[in-house]
Amino acid sequence: MAAPKRGRSASAQSKPGRSLALILIAIAALTGGMFASGNTTPRLGIDLAGGTSITLQAKNEPGQPNAINKTNMDTAVSIMNRRVNGLGVSEAEVQTQGTSNIIVNIPKGTNSAEARKQVGTTAKLYFRPVLAQEASTGATPSASPSASAAGGGASSSPSSSPSSSASGSQKATGTSTASPSSSATSQGRAVTDALKADSTPSSSASASSPASPSAPSASSSADAGASAAAAKLQAEFTALDCSKAAQRATAGKTAKPGDSTVACGQVDGAWYKYVLGPARVDGTEVKKAQAVFDTQGASGWQVQMTFTSSGAKKFADVTGELAKNGQPPQNEFGIVLDGEVVSSPTVAQSITGGQAEISGSFTQEEAQSLSNVLSYGALPLSFKTQSVTTVTAALGGQQLHAGLLAGAIGLALVIIYLVAFYRGLSLVAIPSLLVSAALTYAIMALLGPTIHFALNLPAVCGAIVAIGITADSFIVFFERIRDEIREGRTLRPAVERAWPRARRTILVSDFVSFLAAAVLFIVTVGKVQGFAFTLGLTTVLDVVVVFFFTKPLMTILARRKFFASGHKWSGLDPKGLGAKPPLRRTRRPAGPAAGPVDPKEA
After folding, report:
1. How far apart are CA 257 and CA 334, in angstroms?
2. What is the pTM of this model?
3. What is the strand order of the sheet 286-294 is part of?
4. CA-closest candidate to residue 529, choices 91, 115, 106
5. In angstroms, rounded to a whole number, what is the distance separating the alpha carbons of residues 535 and 541?
6. What pLDDT digit, counting tens, does each position of 7-54 carry?
7. How many other C-beta atoms lie within 10 A of the C-beta of residue 421?
8. Which DSSP symbol is given to 161?
9. Which of 414, 349, 343 is nearest to 374 (CA)?
10. Of the candidates 141, 39, 118, 30, which has an alpha carbon nearest to the alpha carbon of residue 541?
11. CA neighbor of 117 nearest in space, from 316, 338, 302
């Protein structure tokens, strides 16, 4: 059994070039992929590349004085974190500060501006029937449709552009609109009639009667109730000018889901004001939302929604009722997000099947933004922006320069130590360090676009610590070789005998380092995870480099006369190491042969 084992060992020793070729091919492939993808540098985090730090302060909702608590704050942090990460922002960090503040750090990036808009968006979504609408002062309606909806095989026809008429009987087609200076009397009658229609239990002829301003009221009691409810709403609707940002900021923001309200919405750059009925479907009934591009038609970017089972039933009911009204705007429903009408599609028939789509003049970013907030849900609290701080790239550049300088100093000290104590063996250690650095850099550059890994200052510290871990593996191997030489063995057998013992020690040491990095990554958040991730990555690469580069290279150099002869500058000089003399067996003299002894010899 011993002979075949030695044969296999000799075969493995004679082909260390295969391992070297394998790791060099891996480096070439990673480098080629790095240049082919155009990502030749790692992505930098907020502390190195700059970005924005936003402080949000939670506000108590009306009637909920104790809404600001740890549970709601943790839920808000989780939702915000999914929102910004859903946009592909690198190293975004969301964490609480105190009892009522949330800090959001967003690095510079393609979608960072959109992420800043979303972090504080409450994202409370409601589907409300449209009772009346009119163009705000100075708005010029467009002839393009505002939105469309479809689902379950049924589709609705897109509405014409919103009219500036407040009568609610018919929206204008084309570009002709009624005068925006409608009298308060006609506006009040339109709102009153719409409210009465919305409060009527039956959805038959009475639902369509508000379309005619001259339609008589059902009864004096209904008139009185609707007039009382409409008085305040009509005043708000008349005074509302959605072209002014200050009024848009408050319109419909505090309305309860069961109340009618006024709201603002934008269509093709023009602002419109709406009277909306009570919410019929809540945004929590949306199970999934995603942005897709309509390749079959001319709708462009759309947001496709899938409702829960209860939401699908509610949506089918409300679209069926709206479809019976026939005339706009009574056959429209407003999709209201945080008090603003983002879309007001018309409905031609009941939409069943639990699916619908919102389409209109969305850009890709707008569609993705809307689908993102719908997918991850509404925040349990409202927030106001307390401060927005910009972290400049100049400060990050100084930190990066200091980190790289510290790494260079550490690497130089390691090289000086290896040359001073191991002399010629540094020809093995230094190339191994360079191979490890090349693999680390290429992988970090490729991880940026794939998993959005961003190199921050703690991650740089992790890479610096990894220099010591890698050098420690070389030292363990070299010392094992020296131990074998001290025992009187020549270099080539010493290398092969030292490797199994050194390999076991290296694996145990790297396993402990990797385990510590994994635990640190799991139990921490934010920038500390960058340190843990880099430490874990470089620990794994240390094993790869030692097995596929350091050991094969040492095997090759052991065949060279400079090392094999134990030159004093090789680091393996037997005299300098205090080696024992070679162990040689002495043969005992042969005993006398059995039988009679010749007297002459005696």
Report:
1. 13
2. 0.55
3. 286-294, 300-307, 355-362
4. 91
5. 10
6. 444 444 557 888 899 999 999 999 999 898 888 888 887 777 777 888
7. 12
8. P
9. 343
10. 30
11. 338
